[in-house]
Design a protein that fits this description.
Radius of gyration: 15 Å
Strand order of the largest sheet: 1-3-2
Oligomer: single chain
Shape: elongated
Number of strands: 3
Mean pLDDT: 91
Largest sheet: 3 strands, antiparallel
Distance between the termini: 18 Å
Amino acid sequence: MIDDAYSGDMSVAKVTELSATSPKSFEDAMQQGLARAHKTLRHICSAWIKEQHVTIKDGAVTEYRVNMLVTFVLDD
């Protein structure tokens, strides 16, 4: 159920899939992705990490990637 903190009435939400990367960690990739989404999307209320991947070069992890589903409430 969507938290209806925006209108007091029934809300409609949309879910969009994002992919974000970081050279540091999965946590940082998630934070970077949500920070970027926040610049464009209003009323983000949740995110679900769907997949995690790493890029490996010469036996070491060079990049962390998360694919996430971000839910945001639509404006009336």
